[in-house]
Amino acid sequence: MKRGEIYLINFGKKYNSEFGKIRPALIIQNDVANRNIDKVAFKGVSVIPLTTNLSGGNLRLQIEKRDNLETTSEVCINELCTLDLSRINFDTLLTKLTVEEQREVNLKLSQHLGLI
Description:
Elements: E1 5-10, E2 22-27, H1 31-35, E3 44-51, E4 60-63, E5 73-76, E6 81-84, E7 88-89, E8 95-96, H2 99-112
Antiparallel strand pairs: 1-2, 1-7, 1-8, 2-3, 3-5, 3-6, 4-5
């Protein structure tokens, strides 16, 4: 598991405005934490869900259909969350962000968190 990879993740039952069901999500957690996750008690992974409900905007990044990502989707930057490692299906890597896409996610995430 590496930052910038997209896998299917079980978000569970939808609760109010939270994302639910099994859907693609971007691994946003840093690779040092990802490499050492088997050494810690809390196996949480920071992810950002994707949606096929394309609406654009400052807090979304469109990812075109490619590799094993079957539908053009948007990364929903403002829905950053941490889930248990067991929710991630590692059987199939759907796709990986390009360098430019990762830069765009980093910028939008920094704006969303008020870091810039």
